[in-house]
What we know:
Helix content of chain A: 40-55%
Number of helices of chain A: 12
Distance between the termini of chain A: 35 Å
CATH architecture of the largest domain in chain A: 3-Layer(aba) Sandwich
Number of domains of chain A: 2
Radius of gyration of chain A: 19 Å
Shape of chain A: globular
Number of strands of chain A: 9
CATH topology of the largest domain in chain A: Rossmann fold
Oligomer: homodimer
Strand content of chain A: 5-15%
Strand order of the largest sheet of chain A: 2-1-3-4-5
Order of helices and strands of chain A: HEHHEHEHEHEHHHEHEEHEH
Structural class of chain A: alpha/beta
Amino acid sequence: xxxxxxxxxxxxxxxxxxxxxxxxxxxxxxxxxxxxxxxxxxxxxxxxxxxxxxxxxxxxxxxxxxxxxxxxxxxxxxxxxxxxxxxxxxxxxxxxxxxxxxxxxxxxxxxxxxxxxxxxxxxxxxxxxxxxxxxxxxxxxxxxxxxxxxxxxxxxxxxxxxxxxxxxxxxxxxxxxxxxxxxxxxxxxxxxxxxxxxxxxxxxxxxxxxxxxxxxxxxxxxxxxxxxxxxxxxxxxxxxxxxxxxxxxxxxxxxxxxxxxxxxxxxxxxxxxxxxxxxxxxxxxxxxxxxxxxxxxxxxxxxxxxxxxxxxxxxxxxxxxxxx
Amino acid sequence: xxxxxxxxxxxxxxxxxxxxxxxxxxxxxxxxxxxxxxxxxxxxxxxxxxxxxxxxxxxxxxxxxxxxxxxxxxxxxxxxxxxxxxxxxxxxxxxxxxxxxxxxxxxxxxxxxxxxxxxxxxxxxxxxxxxxxxxxxxxxxxxxxxxxxxxxxxxxxxxxxxxxxxxxxxxxxxxxxxxxxxxxxxxxxxxxxxxxxxxxxxxxxxxxxxxxxxxxxxxxxxxxxxxxxxxxxxxxxxxxxxxxxxxxxxxxxxxxxxxxxxxxxxxxxxxxxxxxxxxxxxxxxxxxxxxxxxxxxxxxxxxxxxxxxxxxxxxxxxxxxxxx
Lengths: 324, 324
């Protein structure tokens, strides 16, 4: 996978000076780009990184998109507006790479493609899900365009992250069951996170809690919390905080202190250190928050909440059923 | 104001080649930069635009920030982490501009400063609130660095937008009262918007509904709605949709069709055309969505909801009361 990604990036760079990378997708696939985008902004000064939900990219494409832009576009099965975004990117001259599970117009339109494995399936390998492949693209891009001093450690981290996930998957079953038992019957669950874990918080809200279980779930950035949202906190409010590992951890810790002081027993914290992030090399572990948080949230916490509420997580009101 | 802004931008550009602009603030001030950021991405190919919540900028500053970056940093009264962000930006060599109401460390740290007027006060002029000043900076920057063909029309729009706001303020009182009467007693109100109006949706959620009235309020991008959040919709769910004017309107219209079909009487739509956006020149009106939506939401809809719920909108549990 690492060689495949490095080759795709090398192909995209051949004969073009890439100054921008745009990550384009919808919903969970869009949130799945967050780790790659966060990495690019912190480690690559020469390529500007930007994220878009597909339909905004289609309707009002950024002015900079031209042959110096790499567009990485993700859809599991070829979401209509995401295919359209690929068409727009290509027309504007960008290099295009599709991330996909099933072939579709997306893979037919893009210059290159990389298959990924669905995060929701237990047999999928952690380093092969969409957010991992995107992060690998970002690291490869940074390494080939500038230089990325910790590239080898990062690739080592991809080698071992699946084993770390499997252990965390087993270890978090019981804490997740306890959390879910307490949450059953709640109508709103806030999810908080910051920096490298914010994308995981967003996906947990919109894909797991809202889409799969039909429970309201605002996502709040731990830093923004103190500038508005914290006023909703009382002794009963359900809040799920992702405590990230790395430079933004103090922002999450500040939120946690406040939640512990003014919130009540429905405040829950999931610490990235408890997921095994500390086992990854110091200089790269921050960038793997999303890579461990997201599958644990999807496959342990969401499933536990589904079991506790007695609601099958394949329940849908609209998806697969009506036109939209 | 327009001359003052143009001069500040010219000063920032003197002797430096600006390749990036970073908009840095917390909460409502952060959301207030959305119009400027949206404009930059669509109209200025040569300067990359990025938004950050202050504390993330402090803890994990972007790699690109150096003397080729313009940092525009906003805080009404000198929010602690926003002042710290200004210090970090300055240390990294960026040109710094403070937007402020009261002088503070922020104005002492930054190279330059521009005073703005609070959106919450009826006597403030629409073209002088923080989001207007930021948009004016963006337009001036685009015009001075590249060229912005519609600069004169945009400045004309700033000349007339306050009059348009005053008329909308009067016209929307009754619709807002009706909406608020229906919402009184609801515990969760979704706010939806996209593209140039997304920042207004975010601020309405976190500052008006959550902070001032302590009601839960997830913000959903109209494009992302179909990829998760729409599964929470039923015949009773309260949803407030901003129908933007410009290229992203079809995304909001698609969401509206779905909301009308599967939602119920608690679905509400506020159309930017009803606020008078159609009175602004065709080529620039899209960029003024935020400039009209935000004061109408803050000063008409929020106040109406405050009256209908009998909750003083100066009610706070924590702000001004406890340390955090």
